[in-house]
Design goal:
This protein is α/β, with parallel strands linked by helices. The protein contains 17 helices and 48 strands. The termini are far apart.
Length: 949
């Protein structure tokens, strides 16, 4: 009896160990467990009560909170219940390519306020899109394409001010396209959105003229294959960022607006299969236009338009049944890139002459059913010409151009490499590298390719290479890819079959498939130029390792060892309890990089410090008066900050992490090594650190006047006039320039904002808080590929979409900081982005660019109007959408110095005004260190492939 009691106690202790060691937030755990209970085919390692600690496939955690769920292409079956809202810290939800995921989206999804990416591509979801989705203010990517959603597009989507990617294509959505009306939002408010993908639905009514405006940054407008009526609105010509326009296969009528040729960046234009009337649109000036299709409309009869010959970038000219008449000039066939010309069912007459040169890429000229009565034959032109239905072919002629050839799709498939293919078993496939494996398969759909020659193998070879480059850059287990069967489907999409072969073994595990699926669903993969917007539909992967193990073998083994396992568990529980203390001591030493450091000999795990020292816990306890409340100058999610005085009377700020926010020892060591190497008058200095008695503390020089944010908001009582703001901007710029150009290795701050710019007693600016910073190693060329982190409103959109961090990402954040100095407003305030607000109000023809109403009154009253205008210009250069077009920080420093000279200031002298007169006003305000954390590695902005798109 006593023995069984002992065994029982051991078993209880064994269970308690696992319960105590659980890491995941209880709310997140209950949410995942609730979803698991209604989902089938979840990954096999979804067991136990600790998703973060046990590393559940597809679950990513930060600080023991679930921030990402990625479960693409694993044959998941079930519904998305309201339990998903329990995951309040979730940033990414990707369930793509699981056809078994059905039912409606729960309204509770609107409670997930931090969600940035909702990706449900190629599932079986149905019902209306819940209006509550408009509450997801951080949403950047909303991909609901290829489902069975019904009802109208919720107008509330227009409230998603940060939305970059909106894809609702290939559903059963009805009704009109919603626009704002003063009382409700609409899609016209999505000025930051680059992609409107609404094709293959049942949308009706007119395209609202209010949908488009000049503030939009839209590049893809895809409305093909709907039931839209009415005119093409002239406001479309205002969106000069557009690159792809698909309005084909609707019932649009009336004349095409004359200002269509304002869209000089458009590369693909589809207006075919409508009932458009009036004159044929004049596309003169659209010099990058590659693909144009206006077939099957009712345009007025018109002579061959001059732009047929002037648009040198054309690859495909598709103008069937468009009322064109007259003789074709031979010069139109000289375009170097021209591949296909289809002018069937028009009134083209006279002699057909392809010219002496002709494009060396030209494959097809289809002129069926016109009035051509002669042809000038020239040798050397290997172009397929079709003149069936013309007078020239009505005389019993048998030339090749008087017969309709049998058309077939390209038979391209990825060639075998320099190897000998091996015979594979019936359920495996030979890869391009001659290995037998179980590939992940699916279909790529390119919605508007700029080319029409699908027989050009080099085009697809570049696509294969780009795919492999992306897989390798993300560290995914891919050996090779194979493309096959390129074809143009009924939607005029280029369709390609894709096989992705595993590396290292002949099958993928769940994490491999999830990673590949997310790369494609998240649009992390960017196809080569010319392929245009795409989407991927993956097949369920049926060859996971566990599925190929013999179930009968498992039963036999289980029966044979079942009893032994039970006994061993009891035995191990006792051994575990006996050795627990010893193991904890060993583990503690292993996780403590300072464990073998002897401060007296500078040996062991000592961090490589430059000018910083290690403090004992007792020293800092004494210096902060036992961490008393009177010395508490602020707090945050990481813990508290205390004012302290060292034995040498130096005033410091001690940042003390609370247990739940502490980093691992190695990460903490890495951070203090980074901080200790930074020495510049415009960068906050690290005095030292403490890593003992379970504590992590950083000791900084004490900065008297707090954050720039506090002064701009009036908390400190310090009045920042225009001259002081210029000096602060220059100081912050010099600090950042030092990090980029003079630190060794260079440092990208990654979190520049007004709460991380501190002001000393002379109001000199100092850059602070390096908790998110990244070193730029010698081996890295121009960028660091890393998880996206930063703060909403300051984050570089290019970095967000590509995961490629560069110094120019800091420049973008600094540009937003300049707008704060100009306006004293938050970057995002009541859903409005300060950069956009300034751009809307700006009029360069007026004094101070007509910004008096949005500038801080202190700035607006400046006597130096020209310096304010130049400052605005610099801010806009810094926040340019493309990083290559932003200045470097050294260029920013020079520009601010020029602006200061324009304002009558000497940029080479520091501020002569101390802050002594403000000391009384500033007493009691929260110190700079109270808002942000050097220990907080989870960002305020969504994590990605990210990117993007």
């Amino acid at each position: 009896m006593m023995i069984w009691r002992i065994h029982l106690y051991m078993l209880v202790a064994f269970v308690q160990v696992f319960v105590i060691s659980a890491l995941t937030n209880s709310g997140d755990t209950s949410g995942l467990q609730a979803l698991k209970s209604i989902w089938r085919n979840v990954p096999p390692n979804w067991s136990g009560a600790d998703p973060c600690g046990n590393g559940w496939d597809g679950i990513i955690c930060t600080n023991n909170r679930v921030v990402s769920i990625k479960l693409a292409s694993i044959n998941l079956i079930g519904q998305l219940s309201g339990d998903i809202a329990r995951l309040s810290e979730l940033l990414i939800l990707d369930l793509s390519y699981n056809k078994g995921m059905t039912g409606p989206l729960p309204a509770a999804i609107g409670d997930m306020k931090k969600l940035s990416r909702l990706i449900l591509v190629g599932c079986g979801f149905s019902g209306p899109i819940p209006p509550s989705i408009g509450s997801l203010q951080n949403l950047v990517d909303l991909s609901l394409n290829s489902n069975n959603f019904i009802g109208e597009i919720p107008p509330t989507i227009g409230a998603l001010s940060n939305l970059y990617w909106l894809d609702l294509a290939d559903n059963k959505l009805r009704g009109t396209i919603p626009v704002s009306n003063g009382t409700r939002p609409g899609l016209d408010m999505l000025v930051k959105t680059k992609h409107f993908h609404f094709g293959k639905n049942q949308l009706s009514g007119e395209i609202p003229s209010r949908l488009f405006n000049s503030n939009m940054t839209l590049i893809h407008l895809l409305l093909e294959n709907n039931q839209l009526t009415g005119n093409v609105p002239s406001t479309l010509g205002l969106v000069q960022t557009l690159e792809v326009v698909r309005l084909d296969k609707n019932t649009l009528s009336g004349s095409v607006p004359e200002n269509l040729n304002n869209l000089t960046h458009v590369q693909e234009l589809f207006l075919a299969n409508n009932t458009l009337t009036g004159p044929l649109p004049d596309l003169t000036g659209m010099n990058v236009l590659n693909y144009v299709d206006m077939s099957n409309n009712s345009f007025n009869a018109t002579d061959v338009p001059p732009w047929f010959s002037s648009l040198q970038s054309l690859t495909s000219l598709i103008m069937e049944n468009t009322g064109i008449q007259g003789e074709l000039p031979s010069s139109m066939f000289d375009h170097f890139q021209l591949q296909t010309v289809v002018l069937k069912n028009n009134r083209i007459n006279g002699t057909f002459d392809i010219g002496a040169t002709g494009s060396n890429q030209l494959q097809l000229i289809d002129l069926q059913n016109n009035f051509i009565d002669s042809i000038t034959q020239r040798t050397g032109n290997r172009v397929q010409i079709i003149l069936v239905g013309n007078p020239i072919c009505n005389e019993g002629r048998t030339e090749n151009y008087c017969t309709i050839p049998t058309r077939s799709n390209s038979s391209y498939s990825t060639p075998i490499g320099n190897c000998t293919p091996l015979p594979c078993s019936s359920d495996r496939t030979s890869s391009p590298t001659c290995k037998c494996a179980y590939p992940y398969t699916g279909t790529l759909f390119f919605r508007a390719p700029s080319f029409s020659n699908y027989g050009n193998s080099s085009i697809f070879a570049s696509l294969e290479q780009k795919l492999m480059d992306t897989f390798r850059s993300l560290g995914l287990p891919v050996d090779s890819v194979s493309l096959s069967n390129p074809a143009k489907n009924m939607d005029d999409y280029l369709v390609l079959s894709l096989q992705i072969f595993p590396s290292g073994q002949d099958y993928y595990n769940h994490s491999g498939i999830i990673g590949i699926g997310f790369m494609l669903s998240n649009q992390t993969f960017k196809p080569p130029s010319g392929f245009g917007p795409f989407f991927f539909i993956g097949n369920n992967y049926a060859h996971f390792a566990v599925s190929r193990k013999s179930s009968s073998t498992g039963v036999i083994i289980g029966a044979a060892v079942g009893g032994a396992v039970l006994f061993l568990l009891l035995l191990l529980a006792g051994v575990y309890a006996f050795c627990q203390k010893r193991r904890a001591e060993i583990a503690g030493k292993k996780s403590d990089p300072f464990a073998s450091w002897d401060p007296n000999t500078n040996s062991g795990g000592v961090p490589q410090l430059k000018g910083a020292r290690s403090f004992s816990f007792e020293e800092l306890k004494k210096g902060t008066n036992n961490f008393s409340e009177t010395n508490d100058v602020g707090s945050g999610g990481y813990g508290k900050v205390y004012r302290g005085t060292l034995s040498n009377r130096q005033l410091v700020a001690v940042k003390r992490a609370q247990p739940g926010s502490m980093q691992g020892g190695l990460e903490f060591k890495t951070e203090i090594e980074l901080l200790s190497r930074v020495h510049h008058k415009n960068v906050v200095s690290l005095v030292g650190f403490c890593f003992e008695q379970g504590e992590q503390m950083l000791v900084y020089e004490y900065i008297a006047n707090g954050t720039l944010k506090d002064s701009l908001s009036g908390k400190t009582g310090i009045r920042l006039d225009w001259m002081r703001r210029l000096r602060i901007a220059l100081g912050a710029a010099k600090g950042l320039q030092y990090l980029h150009d003079l630190a060794n290795p260079p440092i990208i701050h990654r979190d520049i904002k007004s709460t991380n710019i501190l002001l000393d007693e002379r109001l000199n600016a100092k850059v602070a808080d390096f908790g998110l910073s990244k070193l730029m190693g010698e081996s890295e060329r121009g960028h660091v590929t890393t998880q996206v982190k930063g703060t909403m409103g300051y984050l570089d959109p290019e970095y967000y979409m590509t995961n490629q961090l560069t110094e120019k990402s800091d420049v973008y954040s600094f540009g937003v900081l300049l707008f704060e100095l100009l306006t004293a407003r938050n970057p995002i305030e009541k859903g409005k982005y300060i950069v956009r607000e300034v751009k809307i109000a700006m009029d360069t023809s007026k004094d101070m660019y007509n910004l008096q109403g949005i500038l801080d009154p202190i700035v607006a009253s400046s006597m130096s109007l020209k310096s304010v205008e130049q400052f605005v210009n610099l801010a806009f250069r810094c926040v340019h959408e493309s990083g290559v077009n932003r200045p470097t920080m050294s260029e920013v420093v020079k520009e601010i110095e020029n602006i200061m000279e324009l304002a009558g200031l000497n940029p080479n002298t520091e501020s002569a005004t101390t802050s002594a007169s403000y000391e009384e006003a500033s007493k009691g305000f929260n110190h700079p260190y109270s808002n942000e954390s050097l220990f907080a590695y989870s960002a305020a902005y969504p994590a990605s492939k990210l990117e993007p798109k």
